[in-house]
Recover the amino acids of this structure.
């Protein structure tokens, strides 16, 4: 029997198998019985939302609701995330992004336009989950260089704007890397004014 969540359960199984994890191990991590996981993967049981969230989180995945119009962008992000050196961000990348997020929370009011701070926050949220190439990781390191100086000497509005632009460019480069030239460019834009 095909359920509406069939594509989700197939992705859960593929992720579990890609990580060489048994159903028994997933059971221990998620708190669900191995039998329940087996039934979900075989499609003989429609998983409840709480079971789906438990299994996803045990696989280091997250279940989210996203606006339908953003699905092409999300598809590109998910499609490009496995083409770098790994399928998860490095610990250094997570630390750098976390540091930038904490700094942004402290200086958010210094941005001349609130939407610019929100755009940086959204970009960092993507960069937290999207693995970066070595070159992109270098660019992320460069974005954090001024943070120590800015703690004692607050950045100018121009410096904040340049920082926001650099983060958006990094996000766009990571999202659109390794795209097949035979596939037409998407008709959407995450930032209308960014020519990354």
């Amino acid at each position: 029997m095909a359920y509406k969540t069939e594509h989700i359960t197939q992705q859960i199984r593929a992720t579990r198998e890609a990580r060489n994890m048994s159903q028994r191990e997933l059971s221990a991590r998620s708190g669900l019985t191995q039998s329940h996981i087996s039934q979900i993967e075989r499609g003989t049981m429609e998983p409840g939302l709480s079971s789906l969230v438990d299994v996803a989180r045990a696989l280091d995945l997250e279940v989210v609701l996203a606006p339908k119009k953003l699905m092409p962008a999300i598809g590109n992000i998910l499609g490009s995330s496995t083409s770098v050196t790994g399928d998860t961000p490095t610990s250094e990348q997570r630390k750098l992004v976390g540091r930038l997020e904490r700094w942004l929370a402290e200086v958010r009011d210094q941005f001349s336009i609130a939407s610019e701070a929100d755009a940086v926050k959204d970009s960092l949220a993507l960069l937290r989950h999207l693995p970066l190439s070595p070159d992109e990781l270098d660019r992320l390191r460069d974005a954090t260089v001024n943070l120590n100086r800015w703690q004692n000497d607050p950045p100018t509005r121009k410096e904040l704007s340049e920082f926001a632009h650099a983060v958006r460019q990094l996000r766009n480069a990571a999202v659109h890397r390794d795209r097949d030239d035979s596939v037409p460019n998407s008709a959407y834009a995450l930032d209308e004014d960014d020519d990354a």
Remarks:
- The radius of gyration is 20 Å.
- The first helix runs from residue 6 to 18.
- DSSP finds ten helices and no strands in the chain.
